[in-house]
Amino acid sequence: MKVCILSSSFPRFEGDSAGPFVHALAQQLVKQGIGVQVVAPHEYGCKRAETWDNVDIYRFPYFYPLKYQRLCYGSGILKNIGQEPWVLLQLPPLVLGEVLFTLWILKKRHFDVLHAHWSLPQGLTGVVCKRLFGIPLVVTIHGSDVFGLKHAWLKKANEGVMKYADACTVNSNATERFVAEASQRRDI
Question: Is the CA virtual torsion 168, 172, 176, 178 positive or negative?
Answer without folding.
Answer: negative
